[in-house]
Amino acid sequence: MAEIALTGAIALLNAVLPFLQSVYHNNKVSPDINEVKELLKTMRSYLMDTEGREETEGWKDRVQKVRNLAYETEVAIDEFMFDVTGHPHHHRVTIALHNVRHSYADFKPISRLSSQLKDIKAKINSIKSTDPFRDVTSGSNVEKIPPEAYPISRDDHLVGIERRRGKICSLILNNEPRYAVISVFGGAGTGKTTLIHEVYKMVKGNFECCAWVPVPRSPDQLLVEICKNMGPGIDGREMLIRHLQQKRYIFVFDGIWKEDEWNSIESLLPFNDKGSRIIISTRRRNLASHCASPHDYIYDLNMNPLTWEEAWELFYRKAFPSGKFPAGSLVEELSVQIVKRCERLPHAIVAVGKFLSSKPSNIMEFKKVHDSLEFEPGSSVGHTYIKKLFQSYFHLLPNLKSCFLYFCNFPEDHSVTRGRLVRLWIAEGFIEAKAGKTLEQVADEYLDELVQMSLVHVNKWDFDGKVKSCRVYNLVRGFILFKSENDNFYTVVRGAETRLGENIPRRLSLHNCSPCISQTEGFRNIRTFSVFGVDDRLESMAKELFSKFKLLRVLDLENAALQCFPQEVVKLILLRYLNLRNTKIDLIPKSINKLQNLMVLDLRQTFALELPMGILDIPKLLYLLIDCRCRNNATLGVEVSQGIGCLKWLQKLSLIKANNKKGSIVEELGNLIELRKLGITELKNTDGRDFCASIEKMKHLSSLYVESTKEFLDLNYVKKPPQMINSLFLRGRLHNIPEWILSLNGLFKLELRQSQLAKSPLEVLWDLPSLKVLHLHDAYSGEVLEFRAGWFLELRKLVIEQCRWLKCVVIPGLAMPKLQTLTIDKGDSLTMVRIAISTLTRIEETSVPEELIEFLD
Predict the structure, then answer these.
(1) Are 199 and 172 in contact (CB under 8 A)?
(2) Which residues of the chain have pLDDT under 70?
(3) Which residues pair with 624 in a beta bridge?
(4) In the chain, N or C: fewer CB atoms in 10 Å?
(5) Is 834 helix (H, G, I), strand (E, B) or coil?
(6) What are the angstrom distances between the C-alpha of 636 and each of 237, 541, 583, 614, 651?
(7) For residues 202 and 173, is the Cβ–Cβ distance under 8 A?
(8) 727 phi and psi, to 5 degrees?
(9) What is the CB neighbour count within 10 angstroms for residue 22?
(10) Beta-carbon neighbour count of residue 627 at 10 Å?
């Protein structure tokens, strides 16, 4: 939709205004920018209000014109910023000469920008005059989105229903007199409506009054729908409440999206003590929790999907209603692949199965369907499921829509880490600044919202409750590709494809292929370029290719086949994100300081041993992620220059050496007061006092990695530690556990490596209130590690390894009551692990040599 493009253009206009006002005090362009910005805001509001209500050719043409105007605005601003962005200067004479020269040199770009903005205003006014923006009664497009569809299946093909309805039935028929609200939660196509409908038919005879209400988007219509179910004579809220006050009723409200809708329902019904029940369905996890009463009356369909056998049975019944399976193993093989692509989502399986049932059961037809689900998500095969997904999509704000569509950048079945994803979102400009929060914190909220709406699937959770890695389901990704390509949001080129479509791409992602250099005339407008899949041709093409990317903001070459840093990259002066992780580059050019807009630089797992002085001249840098991969795959810190403390906006800095050729840098690290993550290696014993003084100044620090040389780590000088630290890694000899660690009430992960403590660390760490992960690697030089009852009440994961002198580990029954994962390696001396049977049986994942286990009474 065009509102995404408009939001991007408005954000860029907001960003350029302060620059113009600070550098060009008497410029005449700022009023034009403000006027264009307000006009674009009006157009965005109009399009958001009419989305889903109009699908005429005239409306589509209007959307296309508006989108093109938004893109034209972005190009004008980006070209202006490209022309006026200067190079860093340090000496006051060169600064003065630079300012005089640019006061003349910048006259032409400013004049051009002014002319372009006037042209854009004229085009906007032309659209308004030929097709004036009509008044829209609603303030939100979601008001007109139709309610949830009725059950997708009304026949006897209700596979998996009997297994899954048991818990809901027990909550409804448990004879508890107090009213209860049961929330059924699940993503699009998981079968919420079908399951609830079958349960409703089964139990409604036990109630005096019953109603099934697809939730309308209008509060007034909600009352009408409820009263309609009550029969004649019931009209209005007061009459409805009197009618239900003394009755045992069961109501189903299918498809709740917002708390306001639930508040409206609550205001219309009497919550009596007659054993009444309310069932709601929603795609939002947080809303399910909000509505459920008692709070644990939640049934999560995402956690109770169809089994593989049930999914196959459902597909078989729908695709082959005659019950005859066609001969030929290839048809069966393709059927298996189709079911896998549907990822056990009942609605998708039914839609695809029904489509196939009307086609000849031969290899060609099945192959067409299989391929269309991946490459043609807008085809008739996936159309039913896509319509279902539209409901979730329409409820997203423009910034969230951009974040959601961005998943098409990643290949199918590819999980992306939370960190990489949110850094990309930030660099793209999708994240709206909020007072008192970092951009990353806001991005985390966006990701959580997408997860809560079941649009994004979490592959791994961290023990602190954060997403560790995630992806979208295959058919959801198909929908995203469909929308992205239609709206020219992202262009994805896959496999054997080497040519681009008709649209001039704005973002380009290559999956296991190389771009067609002969087709690069449209590359000047590309803002994002990413590569997945190693292709040796990339390096040979780099110079010619990157020279086309004048306005590039994001360059993601993680895992690319690069031996050297591409020199053309330093000319991309609008670049905000540069990822060269896991490439073979070993030298970073001094001229990297030309990248004055760079926010993210990821050089992890490269062969670069040091960073040039030029890094210190990049004022907007937020993330400096570096480490050196040795030939034996060991990871080392990277040497940085004196002056690192001038990067005052840095939020993450890891992994750097504490000392360079000129001496220690630990004292000036105290200037980096915005740091959230710090990783440092080769810390000397003599650095301890200065390092402790520096980290005391980092009030926002949440992750700390410290590695010593072969000397003892001396971290006992911290008096007021940053209370936000939740992850701590210490590698090196310790005389004792520093006392300040015991005051970290939010610490959830602690790893001690090669500490070789003489005294058991358990005796001082046991009472940390939030500790969930404890990793002890060669951390103790004693012979017995004994846990005690009541210790480590929140611990979920325990790893004990390489403790060379350890002979016995004792774990009684009342220690670590929430432990989920236990790993103890045999080591050199270990002869016995004494553990309570109750503890061992409740642990989900155990890796302990069986011959060492001895059960406690």
Answers:
(1) yes
(2) 1-2, 21-28, 46-56, 59, 86-107, 130-157, 326-329, 374-390, 495-503, 514-522, 534-535, 631-632, 857
(3) 601, 653
(4) C
(5) strand
(6) 70, 31, 15, 21, 21
(7) no
(8) -135, 125
(9) 8
(10) 19
d(CA 162, CA 304): 12
pLDDT at 49: 63
Q: What pLDDT was estimated at residue 154?
A: 47
Per the structure block, which two tokens stand in for 715? 């971290």
Using CB atoms within 10 A of its CB, is residue 490 exposed (0-12), middle (13-18) or buried (19+)? buried
Crossing angle, helix 30-50 and helix 107-130, to 10 degrees?
Answer: 30
> Cα dist. 612→596, 627, 663 in Å?
15, 14, 16
* Tokens encoding 508: 């380009």
- In 429-473, alpha helices (H): 439-452
Helices (H) and strands (E) in the chain, counts: 24, 31
Please give the backbone phi and psi of residue 137, each rounded to the nearest 5 degrees, phi first. -70, -35
**CA–CA dist 276, 281 (Å, integer):** 17
| Tokens coding 321 | 């209603």
Beta strand 784-786 pairing with 797-801: unpaired
How do strand 635-636 and strand 623-629 relate by DSSP bridges?
Answer: antiparallel
- Distance CA(516)–CA(524), nearest Å, equals 14
> So what's the pLDDT on residue 499?
60
Do residues 596 and 626 touch, judged by C-beta distance below 8 A? no
Res 186: pLDDT = 86
Q: Identity (one letter) of the amino acid at 63?
A: V
495: Cα separation from own chain's centroid = 26
Please report which helix (H) or strand (E) contains residue 47, including its range: helix 30-50
Contact 342, 352 (CB under 8 A): yes
Residues 6+ apart with CB under 8 A from 262: 256, 280, 287, 290, 291
d(CA 424, CA 576): 9
CA distance 534 to 385: 33
- The candidate with the shortest Cα–Cα distance to 277, out of 357, 387, 177, 205, is 177
Q: Are 647 and 616 in contact (CB under 8 A)?
A: yes
List the beta strands (DSSP E) in 613-748.
Answer: 623-629, 635-636, 652-657, 659-660, 663-664, 677-683, 703-708, 727-731
Residue 571 has a pLDDT of: 92
Alpha-carbon span 292 to 285, nearest angstrom = 11
Q: Provide the token pair at 113.
A: 């920008």
b or e along 351-389 (b: 16 or more beta carbons within 10 Å of the residue's beta carbon)? Answer: bbbebbeeeebeeebbebbbebbbebbbbebbebbbebb
CA distance 436 to 820: 36
DSSP result, 252-293: EEEEE--HHHHHHHHHHS---SS--EEEEEES-HHHHHHH-B
d(CA 148, CA 135): 27
Phi, psi of 222 (to 5 degrees): -60, -45
694-698 long-range Cβ contacts below 8 angstroms, 24+ apart: 694/666, 694/667, 694/668, 694/669, 694/670, 695/669, 695/670, 695/721, 695/722, 696/670, 696/720, 696/721, 696/722, 697/670, 697/671, 697/673, 698/670, 698/672, 698/673, 698/722
In contact, 155 and 251? CB cutoff 8 Å: no
Separation of alpha carbons 768 and 770, rounded Å = 6
Q: Which amino acid is at 320?
A: F
pLDDT score for 631? 67
Structure tokens at 723: 């209370």
Nearest-angstrom CA–CA distance, 661 and 430: 41
pLDDT score for 212? 92
- Which secondary structure element, helix H or strand E, spans residue 7, and what is its range? helix 2-23
